[in-house]
Design a protein that fits this description.
alpha/beta, 11 helices
């Protein structure tokens, strides 16, 4: 797996130097915000708690939803993001889903992108007051791409472009999708940018008991293959079916059902892959402090449960404060 820093051709040390800003009386703090879709709203609660205790990150690296929350913090728009998140309802979420039949992603993403740009403005990453990077994945090569300069809204949009749901984003001559495909909790990037104390927030840490081996399984009496619905006989019925299907598709993206919906299959498949990858990468490069919000009960697409997610993040961060303070003191 290759890693590309899309922000510069210079060394990492020289990048960090531009943001170091002289001497400090504590080690540099890197905050790593992992992916997690709707669960990622918990990052807001984590940030609120850290700031309340005077723990201010010098470096923020985020993947997917983590990149969005980290970008809003870096631009001073965390309040705006939280207010919008708390206002979300099932109805308003459906309104953001500009479904595109036949495109590279199920959702065009234009409505969400417009809302994102309202929050982030036309900010450039290199102009932010702290070191920031969003993680993305290049289609075709599988390169891990660290987005460290250029348009912040475009970088964030690339970082959360979940394959099959959102279309890939072309940025700097590369087609990029969700960074969780290669680095869901990018501790390695924070360390490369000079963080001496790395705090990582992992939204999948409470998925214990998943991923075991079922050694013997098979069909039960009554199991059968799914039956396809009959084809419409005339053109009008087919046209009506297209619009009906689009409406149903929007609802399936946020709804739950006894039989797994299209969105459930897509997201859960991605979730399984990400869980395995997160375990492997954190085993090889563990953070100094690992914050693990117990948020498995919130679905990846439960954006209307933002208030609950934020509170879970706040509680998890409170439990980690002593560990964070100790890690900082040890290096001071």
């Amino acid at each position: 797996m290759s890693r590309i820093d899309a922000g510069t051709e210079a060394s990492v040390d020289s990048q960090v130097g531009g943001h170091a800003g002289g001497k400090r009386d504590r080690p540099s703090i890197g905050l790593v915000l992992g992916s997690g879709a709707a669960r990622g709203f918990a990052h807001i609660g984590v940030l609120r708690t850290l700031l309340a205790h005077g723990i201010i990150p010098d470096i923020i690296v985020g993947t997917s939803m983590g990149a969005l929350v980290g970008g809003c913090y870096a631009t001073g728009q965390l309040d705006t993001l939280e207010e919008w998140a708390r206002s979300l309802t099932m109805r308003s979420i459906i309104g953001y889903l500009d479904v595109r039949i036949g495109g590279a992603g199920l959702i065009g993403g234009g409505r969400l992108a417009s809302r994102l740009e309202q929050s982030l403005g036309n900010k450039m990453i290199e102009d932010l007051p702290i070191r920031f990077a969003a993680i993305a994945t290049e289609i075709g090569t599988g390169h891990e791409v660290w987005l460290t300069r250029g348009s912040l809204p475009i970088a964030v949009r690339a970082s959360y472009a979940l394959p099959g749901i959102f279309p890939p984003v072309q940025l700097g001559g590369r087609w990029l999708v969700d960074g969780a495909l290669v680095n869901p909790v990018p501790v390695s990037a924070a360390r490369a940018f000079g963080a001496r104390v790395v705090i990582a927030v992992n939204m999948d840490a409470d998925r214990f008991g998943r991923g075991t081996t079922i050694a013997s399984h098979g069909a039960e009496p009554g199991d059968s293959l799914p039956v396809a619905p009959p084809e419409p006989r005339n053109g009008l019925a087919r046209l009506r079916g297209i619009f009906t299907a689009e409406h149903a598709l929007k609802r399936q993206i946020v709804a739950d059902a006894a039989r797994p919906s299209f969105s459930t299959v897509m997201v859960e498949s991605f979730n399984i892959m990400q869980d395995r990858l997160t375990r492997m990468r954190l085993a090889g490069d563990p953070p100094d402090v690992h914050i693990t919000p117990r948020i498995g009960h919130v679905g990846w697409l439960d954006f209307h449960r933002a208030a609950e997610s934020i509170e879970v993040g706040r509680s998890a961060a409170e439990k980690a404060i002593d560990s964070i303070s100790g890690s900082i003191a040890d290096l001071t």
